[in-house]
Amino acid sequence: MRVLGVDPGLTRCGVGVVDGVPGRALTMAGVGVIRTPADADIGHRLVLIERGLEAWLDEHRPEAVAVERVFSQHNVRTVMGTAQASAVAILCASRRGLPVHLHTPSEVKAAVTGSGRAGKDQVGAMVTRLLRLDAPPKPADAADALALAICHIWRSPATNRLQQAVAGNRLQQAAAAQRAAATHRGTARRAPARPPVPTQEPTP
Predict the structure, then answer these.
(1) What's the pLDDT tens digit per position in 61-102?
(2) Of residues 7, 39, 107, 144, which has the active-site annotation?
(3) 71, 113, 161, 164: most buried, per Cβ within 10 A?
């Protein structure tokens, strides 16, 4: 499986591509950062992010895209920019028919380091170790993107089982509803017709 991880951001959007399957060694296929000028118009910055992501998708042809789920923080302006960049990543992947998966920062940290409260240095160190790199990717946004891809590869079997269970449950509910509807229709057809109520003729 090849996964493109995206750590969304307006100024720096981290991107990382990882190949691998659960239980086996992982390999980095690419890592980098898409940058936009802070003084540029928001529309232009989003276009630059889109073009950058499209170039990565064209070059690496991932099977899935993992994007960090945006959470509210104290700096509302930063959150808005992150959410906008996240939406661009989701759009680029969905336009190609690629599955998109959102992972929270704590999920990623727990998957890579074993602790949902790990710092960026710990995440970078574990990414370096897991991918057998010479040094931690810089800046931290790049390492976070690789961590997102690793997280998704390791969590995908459990996610698939959950999705299959949900889909199976929905199918069972739909079948039960169809059986109930068929039973109701059959009962309605078999129900005897009520005899007409006799009317009393007026006395002369």
Answers:
(1) 999 999 999 876 667 778 899 999 999 999 999 999 999 999
(2) 7
(3) 113
DSSP 97: T
Tens digit of each residue's pLDDT (9 = 90 or more) over 108-147: 999 999 999 999 999 999 999 999 999 999 999 999 999 9
Active site residue 144: no
Whether 68 is catalytic is yes
Contact indicator for 3, 153 with CB cutoff of 8 Å:
yes
Tokens for 87, please give them. Answer: 């939406």
Beta bridge partners of 3: 18, 64
Q: Do 64 and 98 touch, CB atoms closer than 8 A?
A: yes
Decide: 88 and 50 in contact? Cβ < 8 Å. yes
The pairs formed by 170-175 with CB atoms below 8 angstroms and a separation of 24 or more are none
Choice among 50, 141, 144, 201 that is catalytic: 141
% helix / strand / coil in the chain, to the nearest 5?
55, 15, 30
